[in-house]
Design brief:
Length: 555
């Protein structure tokens, strides 16, 4: 990176980010509906904004809001708290957009558009740090800019784009910490120290002056925000924490420390645990502040329909009953705080935290038991996500007759055909299928070439994907794979860099690498353009739509 002009690199990075943002806000308010799970998160965000917690919405809340009635006293019930099953950070971000632009589709989607564009900026800077190349960083950013899954999620008020952004940012901070740690070690250790470490088997290298690591602290803060969006961030947090320790061990080994793995676990393990796990836990609990302030509302709502609608047999008719703590037949096992008078001061904080713990038990029961028997037409097996086995249709308008005008466009379908509009959560196929191959190559090169950079791609992709395999018997959706997308792109771009090589002069390898890499990039761009209408709710005849639905499973 020392050979790269930092001004040019930032101009390129920001330029691509601005372009991505403009693409994402184009007709952002279309379709004018609650698309898929927006019906939960947009209303929860509006309630958080006005009451500090999620209230139950009235029966026809969606119709009222889309009709222009956004008065929270008319949209939400006067009492009763909603049992939300995901943390609140993403919904607070959605609420910021609603605060700025109003309770309409543009307002509840704008935060996703901003975060989706910023995610591209973070990826550009991460790849530039990994490769030392502004060009490769720009390619990575453009590949993400033209991925359909990231693009559509950036135009919807769903939580997954926020979780993916915070995971990527946290990993970027950990890579920055790796560079900082090694540079700090280099400043602290002299050549004589290296010789002493090699001769003294008990030497650890610097410890005290490496106890505070600013970039690792930043990563811990960001991991807390990721967990505060969706719990699935816990898996990559654990995996990257172990990878960070391996990086520290490698640095100590480089400076002559013997048994570096064991010694790094002792010297750096506690530091990493505090900076990552403890800090993340504090941030996570803090993100529930609105809930904690209004915990008494939840304690009073324990007998509401929201809390009892899923009780009954667990595991699809199995023999074991699973009930919420709040609905346990043994009344003595229910929330003890519900029977206590409201406390104040430190006692009140303790009471609120205890209620939050009970609430988490109920939410965990919901996710691990009561969804086991549920079905959904767009549910998919996570094993096939990298191959785009089952996209998710989040909005559709069918049966538009030929000659009819819809949204300023005229249906030009042939006789006997009709037109339709759809928004489909589908990654750009060329990018994902090529990425699956690149990810396999990254695993081989990580082990075979002992190149730590491929470990970022492999650990990132696998830790955000494989944990979902244990939930294959409940409805889960392919767009959860958005968190693995940045790491797939990292694998692709690292492969491009390896094919092109580092030589400044033209060589046969460089020529072939440029041709292959350029051809792949152009295919991704053309592929994205082909699917543009089904990413943006465009008007298509059914025949044109079928040209884009390549497999029966995509319908």
């Amino acid at each position: 990176m020392s050979d790269e002009d930092p001004v040019i690199s930032w101009v390129v990075s920001i330029g691509i980010t601005v372009m991505a943002f403009l693409l994402r806000i184009w007709h952002l308010g279309s379709p004018h509906v609650f698309a898929f799970d927006e019906t939960y998160y947009a209303k929860d965000a509006w309630s958080l904004l006005h009451y500090g917690y999620a209230r139950n919405a009235v029966t026809d809340a969606d119709k009222l809001i889309l009709g222009g009635t956004t008065d929270p006293t008319k949209v939400f019930s006067p009492d009763g708290a909603e049992m939300i099953v995901h943390p609140e950070v993403g919904k607070w971000l959605i609420a910021l957009g609603e605060k700025a632009f109003g309770m309409d589709p543009f307002g509840w989607r704008i935060a996703s558009a901003v975060i989706g564009a910023l995610m591209i900026l973070v990826l550009i800077r991460l790849v530039r740090r990994l490769t030392g190349s502004t060009l490769l960083g720009a390619v990575a950013g453009l590949l993400m800019c033209f991925d359909g899954l990231e693009f559509v999620l950036s135009r919807l008020a769903l939580l997954d784009i926020f979780g993916a952004f915070f995971i990527l940012l946290a990993v970027h901070f950990m890579v920055m910490d790796r560079d900082w740690f090694r540079a700090k070690m280099a400043r602290l250790v002299t050549e004589q120290d290296v010789l002493r470490h090699q001769q003294d088997g008990a030497a650890f290298g610097p410890v005290r002056r490496l106890l505070f690591r600013p970039w690792l602290l930043a990563s811990g803060l960001t991991w807390g925000l990721a967990l505060g969006t969706k719990w699935d961030a816990a898996y990559p947090l654990a995996c990257f924490a172990l990878l960070s320790l391996a990086w520290c061990a490698g640095a100590r080994r480089m400076f002559g420390v013997s048994w570096a793995g064991v010694k790094s676990l002792l010297a750096d393990g506690v530091t990493a645990f505090v900076h990552l796990v403890v800090v993340a836990a504090v941030v996570y609990v803090t993100s529930w502040t609105g809930w904690l302030i209004h915990h008494h509302v939840y304690e009073q709502s324990l007998s509401s329909t929201q809390y009892t609608q899923y009780t009954g047999k667990g595991h699809c008719g199995g023999t074991d009953n699973h009930t919420y703590v709040s609905d346990d037949p043994d009344t003595s096992a229910r929330w003890s705080t519900a029977k206590e008078p409201d406390q104040h001061g430190l006692a009140g904080v303790e009471q609120a935290l205890k209620s939050l713990w009970y609430y988490h038990q109920d939410v965990y029961t919901f996710h691990t038991n009561f969804l086991q028997c549920a079905t959904h037409p767009y549910a998919s097996q996570p094993a096939g996500w990298p191959l785009l086995n089952r996209p998710v249709g989040v909005a559709a308008d069918n049966g538009i007759q030929p000659g009819a005008t819809d949204g300023g466009q005229t249906c030009k379908a042939a006789a006997g055909d009709t037109c339709l509009r759809q928004v489909l959560l589908l990654g750009t196929p060329v990018l994902w299928w090529g990425g699956a191959i690149a990810l396999i190559a990254a695993g081989i090169l990580w082990i075979g070439a002992r190149d730590w950079r491929y470990g970022v791609a492999v650990v990132g992709a696998l830790s955000t994907w494989l944990p979902w395999l244990q939930y294959a018997n409940r409805p889960i959706f392919s767009y959860y794979a958005i968190s693995m997308l940045p790491f797939i792109i990292v694998a692709i771009v690292l492969g491009m860099g390896r094919m092109i090589g580092t030589a400044r002069v033209s060589t046969p390898q460089r020529t072939v690498g440029v041709i292959v890499s350029g051809a792949f990039f152009l295919l991704v761009l053309v592929n994205f353009a082909w699917f543009w209408p089904i990413y943006t709710n465009g008007l298509l005849s059914r025949a044109q739509w079928l040209d884009r639905i390549w497999f029966q499973r995509w319908i």
